[in-house]
Amino acid sequence: MFTSRACIVLRQRKVFFLLVAFIFVLLFVFGSFSNPEDYEKEYPLQLENEQLVICYESNTDYRKSLYATNLPDITDEPSTTQRNNHQPQALQQPVNGTEPVIYFVTPTYPRREQIAEIIRLGQTLMHVPRLHWIVADDTTSCSDVLNRHIRKFGIPYTQLASPMPEMYRARKNAPRGVANRRAALNWIRRNQKKTGVLYFGDDDNTFDLKLFSEIRYTKKVSMFPVGLIGDYGISSPIVRNGRVEGFFDSWPAKRKWPVDMAGFAVSLEYLALSPNATMPFKAGYEEDEFLKSIGLKLEDIEPKARNCTEILVWHTQTKSSKSPTVRISMDRQKLDKLNLGALLRRLESMGVNHISESE
Ligand code: UDP
Ligand code: MN
């Protein structure tokens, strides 16, 4: 009797210990898989099927005398004295060919507004000397239509085809522009670019020309305000005595670096110190995790734009709408005798509309 009861107690203890051990193992396994700091393991720079597709490239600068050297540096502050009393000052630094190159990375994707966005942005960048424009298109194949528009600006450029992996595209909150920026990071690494400055400039943002002379001599990481962000209408570092002390952003979301993609620039010397730096496919946390992956420290940040009192970049967004199908009952030959044949074909090639004879 006594021995059998002792046996049951022992067995219960054994089961209890086994259960506890099992729970520990479970906690350990889940803990190690969901460590939020482990972004390098979770978001490797190179995905298995991620390859670098270079569509077109040009290293020649065809923009002759476009560089502005004598535009006045006028702020938008209300003048307390007379108007037009500003001393003209060089807006862009004079060019002698030794200035650090700005690698301006633009994610873009095919939609009906794409070409219009690229024209507007390209015409801004035409004014910026010593700039290499990396246009990374969210497509599997190289877009010739896009290329024809990029190359006409005469800016040294690289056009990449960098599609978002299908598994992310299916998500409600897809990480937009990440595959593109990762491809650009790969291009920078593969081409051993270790001097100059990296800047992520989306195709729909608005850039003040002064931004470029501000970021060109970035030592490690420079930061500045971005207008039209979130509920406050601005995202900006908080600066005291010329040092960044914190951030003003309406969506902190437990981010260590609550900044917008357009609100910082990184020197390539500094980037090269983190060969595994990457951007995660994690909507909302791209900037934060990228800046963590380069090991950023608060004291590494240089505030720009007059100690973050000026807005030199705006998070403008273009209203997008579906591409319409236009029924034209005239046959193609007749249409080609008018301007309409060529005009409609051009619009169709840009994805602005579709022409149908029956629909
Ligand atoms: N983008 C992309 N693929 C997409 C959606 C967006 O490559 O499916 C690009 C887009 O061209 C832009 C950047 O990613 O340069 C950010 O996207 P968007 O402007 O739509 O985002 P928001 O600025 O509204 O956060
Ligand atoms: Mn945008």
Automatic annotation (TrEMBL):
Which protein, by its recorded name, is this? Answer: Galactosylgalactosylxylosylprotein 3-beta-glucuronosyltransferase
Give the family this protein belongs to, as stated in its UniProt record.
Answer: Belongs to the glycosyltransferase 43 family.
Catalysed reactions, as listed in the record: 3-O-(beta-D-galactosyl-(1->3)-beta-D-galactosyl-(1->4)-beta-D-xylosyl)-L-seryl-[protein] + UDP-alpha-D-glucuronate = 3-O-(beta-D-GlcA-(1->3)-beta-D-Gal-(1->3)-beta-D-Gal-(1->4)-beta-D-Xyl)-L-seryl-[protein] + UDP + H(+)
Q: Which residues bind Mn(2+)?
A: 204
- Keyword Transmembrane among record annotations: yes
| UniProt-annotated catalytic positions | 287
- Glycosylation sites (chain numbering): 307
**What is the scientific name of the source organism?**
Anopheles epiroticus
